[in-house]
Amino acid sequence: MYNCAIILAAGEGKRMKSSNPKVLHKVCGREMVNIVIDTVKKAQIENIDVVIGKGSDEVKKHTESRNVSYSFQEKQLGTGNAVLCSVSFLKDKKGTVAVFTGDAPLIKEDTIKKMLSFHNEGGYKATILTSLVKDPSGYGRIIREKSGEVSKIVEHKDCSEEELRVNEINSGMYCFDIESLTESLDKIHNDNAQGEYYLTDVIEILKGQGKKVGALPIPFEETMGVNSRVQLSEAERIMRKRINIKHMKNGVTLIDADNTYIELDVKIGKDTIVYPGNVLQGNTVVGENCTLYPNSRIQNSVIQNNVTIQSSVILDSTIGESTTVGPFAYIRPESTIGKSVRIGDFVEVKKSTIGDKTKVSHLTYIGDAEVGSGCNFGCGTVVVNYDGRKKNKTLIGNNSFIGCNTNLISPVKVNDDTYIAAGSTITDEVPEGALAVARARQINKENWVYKKGLKK
Ligand code: UD1
Ligand code: MG
């Protein structure tokens, strides 16, 4: 059986009070429309048309990588009109088209598969995904005949008193026999409370033609639409819970799953322990047996096995095996930290590589540098990488001992097995095996204080 899908994403989303199109708002780090596209693809529907309108350039830009086609809806005249805009996509196709909305990201892959088999096995011309809810306000109501068969969908604003009491709602997700859909789309009117062309009217039209319509109730947790920021945060909460349960099932310990924020694409190895307040973003990969103590943000980074991190920010970087980071470290993009390294408190590393077993324990800035292995940075070391006009490189060999409060004026090179005296300002290359001292000698002026009469 041939399947394709249409995703409606042309609406503005006025209730979001946003300058960005609604469907580009993110849930757990991914745009809602992309979550829908990805789920539909996982359910093995490859051919997807996205109806765009409001903010179409933006929506296109953010969905491009997903290999979908687009139809353009010039004016937002309603969901029925939106599907009508996709007729050239449907033209010459036979089989089933599934329709989704870009603002309902919680639908699951298995449910889509279930809908398709329910639709095909039941011989329906249309199948609606519905939900039974306590508070149906705002949603279209599923009106059933005494026999239990669906007769129509009535939008909230068009409901009679009696219809308002119906608590089975339209999820806005359906599948249709393509021919039956395209024929009835021409027949819908906009003589309703909102003056819109409702896709939902197709149901009554098909019934009028004696065609079979099915409805499949699914949990509201999957059908919830996002029309406001409050619903966006509710969707985020549901998705977050799903993500966290997946990781726990895979062998990750989450000390407080309600307060751990892991985006959709993040991977975590088994026996890793994540304390509350961690925000793991983008395509971050955390290895096995790591401990993420509270309150770090890690974005697009690779954390290898046995790493310990606490209260730090790590962006677009790699942290090698058995390294410890933090508390209060800042690892900025394009940094590669080796194995068994110690990056301590108030250390900032930017666009630098740090070799294995090097220790940078406190209060240090390392920028645009290549640091070898086995080095020790004293407290308060600064790589002076910026001369006021451009950034310069610093090279530090293996087993260098950098004394406290050293300035390394870049570009500069420090070779292997060197010592730098505390308080030095290094401007010239330090040869292998050397001790560099670059500071004024101390002089003591005997009895200076008493001579000045400053103390008895
Ligand atoms: C719609 C359904 C309602 C259902 C609810 C579920 C209709 C008439 N109503 O109502 O029965 O209970 O979804 O969430 O279908 N869109 C366009 N072009 C338009 C209008 C809308 O592309 O001209 C898109 C929007 O971007 C959105 C989706 O269609 O992604 C749904 O539109 P929305 O205005 O949110 O419809 P609801 O009022 O939620
Ligand atoms: Mg909606």
TrEMBL record:
<feature type="binding site">
    <location>
        <position position="170"/>
    </location>
    <ligand>
        <name>UDP-N-acetyl-alpha-D-glucosamine</name>
    </ligand>
</feature>
<feature type="binding site">
    <location>
        <position position="155"/>
    </location>
    <ligand>
        <name>UDP-N-acetyl-alpha-D-glucosamine</name>
    </ligand>
</feature>
<keyword id="KW-0677">Repeat</keyword>
<dbReference type="GO" id="GO:0003977">
    <property type="term" value="F:UDP-N-acetylglucosamine diphosphorylase activity"/>
</dbReference>
<feature type="binding site">
    <location>
        <position position="140"/>
    </location>
    <ligand>
        <name>UDP-N-acetyl-alpha-D-glucosamine</name>
    </ligand>
</feature>
<comment type="function">
    <text>Catalyzes the last two sequential reactions in the de novo biosynthetic pathway for UDP-N-acetylglucosamine (UDP-GlcNAc). The C-terminal domain catalyzes the transfer of acetyl group from acetyl coenzyme A to glucosamine-1-phosphate (GlcN-1-P) to produce N-acetylglucosamine-1-phosphate (GlcNAc-1-P), which is converted into UDP-GlcNAc by the transfer of uridine 5-monophosphate (from uridine 5-triphosphate), a reaction catalyzed by the N-terminal domain.</text>
</comment>
<feature type="binding site">
    <location>
        <position position="365"/>
    </location>
    <ligand>
        <name>UDP-N-acetyl-alpha-D-glucosamine</name>
    </ligand>
</feature>
<feature type="binding site">
    <location>
        <begin position="385"/>
        <end position="386"/>
    </location>
    <ligand>
        <name>acetyl-CoA</name>
    </ligand>
</feature>
<dbReference type="InterPro" id="IPR038009">
    <property type="entry name" value="GlmU_C_LbH"/>
</dbReference>
<feature type="binding site">
    <location>
        <position position="227"/>
    </location>
    <ligand>
        <name>Mg(2+)</name>
    </ligand>
</feature>
<dbReference type="InterPro" id="IPR001451">
    <property type="entry name" value="Hexapep"/>
</dbReference>
<dbReference type="Pfam" id="PF00132">
    <property type="entry name" value="Hexapep"/>
</dbReference>
<dbReference type="GO" id="GO:0009245">
    <property type="term" value="P:lipid A biosynthetic process"/>
</dbReference>
<dbReference type="GO" id="GO:0009252">
    <property type="term" value="P:peptidoglycan biosynthetic process"/>
</dbReference>
<dbReference type="InterPro" id="IPR011004">
    <property type="entry name" value="Trimer_LpxA-like_sf"/>
</dbReference>
<keyword id="KW-0460">Magnesium</keyword>
<comment type="pathway">
    <text>Nucleotide-sugar biosynthesis; UDP-N-acetyl-alpha-D-glucosamine biosynthesis; N-acetyl-alpha-D-glucosamine 1-phosphate from alpha-D-glucosamine 6-phosphate (route II): step 2/2.</text>
</comment>
<feature type="binding site">
    <location>
        <begin position="8"/>
        <end position="11"/>
    </location>
    <ligand>
        <name>UDP-N-acetyl-alpha-D-glucosamine</name>
    </ligand>
</feature>
<feature type="binding site">
    <location>
        <position position="332"/>
    </location>
    <ligand>
        <name>UDP-N-acetyl-alpha-D-glucosamine</name>
    </ligand>
</feature>
<comment type="subunit">
    <text>Homotrimer.</text>
</comment>
<keyword id="KW-0479">Metal-binding</keyword>
<keyword id="KW-0808">Transferase</keyword>
<feature type="binding site">
    <location>
        <begin position="78"/>
        <end position="79"/>
    </location>
    <ligand>
        <name>UDP-N-acetyl-alpha-D-glucosamine</name>
    </ligand>
</feature>
<dbReference type="GO" id="GO:0005737">
    <property type="term" value="C:cytoplasm"/>
</dbReference>
<comment type="similarity">
    <text>In the N-terminal section; belongs to the N-acetylglucosamine-1-phosphate uridyltransferase family.</text>
</comment>
<feature type="binding site">
    <location>
        <position position="103"/>
    </location>
    <ligand>
        <name>Mg(2+)</name>
    </ligand>
</feature>
<dbReference type="GO" id="GO:0008360">
    <property type="term" value="P:regulation of cell shape"/>
</dbReference>
<dbReference type="GO" id="GO:0000287">
    <property type="term" value="F:magnesium ion binding"/>
</dbReference>
<dbReference type="InterPro" id="IPR005835">
    <property type="entry name" value="NTP_transferase_dom"/>
</dbReference>
<feature type="binding site">
    <location>
        <position position="22"/>
    </location>
    <ligand>
        <name>UDP-N-acetyl-alpha-D-glucosamine</name>
    </ligand>
</feature>
<protein>
    <recommendedName>
        <fullName>Bifunctional protein GlmU</fullName>
        <ecNumber>2.7.7.23</ecNumber>
        <ecNumber>2.3.1.157</ecNumber>
    </recommendedName>
</protein>
<dbReference type="InterPro" id="IPR005882">
    <property type="entry name" value="Bifunctional_GlmU"/>
</dbReference>
<feature type="binding site">
    <location>
        <position position="350"/>
    </location>
    <ligand>
        <name>UDP-N-acetyl-alpha-D-glucosamine</name>
    </ligand>
</feature>
<feature type="binding site">
    <location>
        <position position="439"/>
    </location>
    <ligand>
        <name>acetyl-CoA</name>
    </ligand>
</feature>
<feature type="binding site">
    <location>
        <position position="73"/>
    </location>
    <ligand>
        <name>UDP-N-acetyl-alpha-D-glucosamine</name>
    </ligand>
</feature>
<keyword id="KW-0963">Cytoplasm</keyword>
<dbReference type="GO" id="GO:0019134">
    <property type="term" value="F:glucosamine-1-phosphate N-acetyltransferase activity"/>
</dbReference>
<dbReference type="InterPro" id="IPR050065">
    <property type="entry name" value="GlmU-like"/>
</dbReference>
<comment type="similarity">
    <text>In the C-terminal section; belongs to the transferase hexapeptide repeat family.</text>
</comment>
<feature type="region of interest" description="Linker">
    <location>
        <begin position="230"/>
        <end position="250"/>
    </location>
</feature>
<keyword id="KW-0511">Multifunctional enzyme</keyword>
<keyword id="KW-0012">Acyltransferase</keyword>
